[in-house]
Design a protein that fits this description.
The complex is a heterodimer of chains A (361) and B (357). By secondary structure, chain A is an all-alpha fold. In chain A, 70% of the residues lie in helices and 3% in strands. The longest helix of chain A is centred in the first third of the chain and has 27 residues, at 59-85. In chain B, 40% of the residues lie in helices and 19% in strands. Chain B contains 12 helices and 14 strands. Classes of the chains: A mainly alpha (361), B alpha/beta (357). Chain A binds chain B through residues 56-62, 65, 68-69, 165-166, 169-170, 173, 178-181, 185, 187, 200, 269, 273-276, 278-281, 283, 315, 318-319, 321-323, 325, 327-329, and chain B through 4, 7-9, 11-12, 17, 29, 35-36, 63-67, 69-73, 75-77, 79-81, 83-85, 95, 98, 102, 118, 157-160, 188-189, 342-345, 356-357.
Chain lengths: 361, 357
Amino acid sequence: MIRLEKRPQPSRAWTVATPLLAVALTMVAGGLMFALLGKDPVVAIRTIFWDPLFHEQFASYSRPQLLVKAGPLILIAIGLSLGFRAGIWNIGAEGQYIMGALAGAGVALALYPLDAWFLFPLMVVAGALGGWAWAMIPAILKTRFRTNEILVSLLLVYVAEQVLASMALGLMKNPEGGGFPGSRNLQHYPAAANTELIAGTGMHWGVAAAFIAVIAVYVLLTRHILGFQIRLAGQSPRAARFAGVNPNALVVICLGLSGALAGLAGLFEVAGPGGRINIGFNQGYGFTAIIVAFLGRLHPVGILLAGLLMALTYIGGELAQFMLGIPSAAIQAFQGMLLFFLLGVDVLSNYHIRLGRRRAA
Amino acid sequence: MNRRTLLASAAFALGLAGAAAAQDPVKVGFVYVGPIGDGGWTYEHDKGRLAVEAHFGDAVETVYQESVPEGADAERVMTQMALSGADLIFATSFGFMDPVINVAQKFPDVKFEHATGYKRADNVSTYSARFYEGRAVQGLIAGHMTESNIIGYIASYPIPEVVRGINSAFIHARQVNPDVQFKVIWAYTWFDPAKEADAATALIEQGADVILQHTDSTAPQAAAERAGNVYTFGQASDMIEYAPKPRISSIIDNWAPYYIERVQAVIDGTWESEDTWDGIAPGMVGIGEITDAVPAEVKAEAEALIAAMASGEYHPFTGPLNRQDGTPWLAEGEVADDGTLLGMNFYVEGLTGAVPQ
């Protein structure tokens, strides 16, 4: 008989080992699924995890793409992790991502064809402000009227999508686009384009910002009083109040920071890989980042690795689809397994597994 | 020359993957916006791919990627396909336009074919079908079949192709039924069964008893079947499983002949950048069986319209036609030119509501 015994402290060794175990279990279960679909499981797993990094034909392209795909995920997830640690649930990063992109691209399109060095920095500021402002709506409603930030931030995603559609069809529509929806392509507007910092590396300003955010949040959480307050508020709200933490201020700071980072991610995406404001510009980064935040244990370094792993499964999954003919639904199921096993094996870091009967006391 | 090191170091910049594979079977890639099981748009493109495989056998290898989002992801997918040695890539959604052009620049030796777009390059062709001819047939049947005189229309994105379809259906519905009204819902998606079902239900609740759709799933057909006494048309694919009711006819996109022709051109080395826009006459647009739910005289009228368009004696956009605001567009007997049709972003007179701006 197996029984679980709660550990007084989560096991440090297991906290590190469980993600690796989860990846291994995903490979086994995913391999089984691929085998049932009639594909060679070893080849499939290799195509997903190995080929994007080391395949002689693809790797020189897909390695940089890993950064391009992981950049926005990490940037958003880092912001979300602050709030999640403090028990403040911003589910609407997708909307803040959209509004950041709109604000940043709006600056560029309004000033088109201005060719000035300050244009891109201005867009960055506007992008952060756009995301921040959108996150302030649930923050103010929560601090003033005690509304639930989960619902408000989530529903504002759908509002943001409507604003995006309206902008793509109206105000920001490319006047030279023959009546088709969508803005000018910012990639073709040098002063506004978020190009690769070093050609062929995939390293654009958004990826750089993601790395900076990882370091900044790491320092914040370990060295700064605000980081202490965030951790305390999450672990024990009552103790936090006694320690003089102002819960309203914390709500405003956490939602504001995560909104600003999501807005930045949107701006870097629209000025870089995305290129243009268009309906459906948001590809669900804001929601996937929630998964990345939890995969990374809300820890900055963990989020960095989780973002890269997530990007790897996307890019490797694409390779597996057209190289091996694996259906996209199977790839999505595979990604789902990864999250499932990760959360599942968490039990090991929080509990001892004991075999045998509990002795009567 | 050592192919391995060459590819590893320079394939991305030089796009030599296609050239180096000249001895191998011609590799043809397909990029789909929806899943191949959508039963509509993507399903028909995939039938075209399978027809290419059946026609050429071992001389051709096909690969595909389904459910590719329109944007940066599409660019990566197509780059990876080109790197894997594809000689010809069909990108089958309007939103893949800029990514196609970007990737085509990096791989000058790979040929690209973009469906429903308007940007071409030396190695990028565009192709589309004159779906508005099929919409004319739908409009005629719908105008006869409706009893509430309200026809629902699930539109996808406000791009000229979709606006053209609404106009064509409306013109021909009004010709047989001057009291008919259109209610249009913009779904802002090509494929989202839940959204499409919601839109169909909302239209039915507003009194629509015929539903036309420009989205790719069969969800509106299912919603109409549940509601009873509502008629629908298969979109992009026959959707015959909903016949004889609610599905009373359909527009079928038949891409196979075009795909086979273009692959043959690559094999022969005669491929050139072209703009193809074919309709009912060469068979790119097919009209699915008109079921017995439609009265025989209506069916005969519809078949006469199909024959007239196939022979070229009738064009669905023939004057006199006014724009929505009443200003004249086409004079008596005048036929719309392709340029205006390709950029169509206005409603014709009689339609209510506005094209989203």
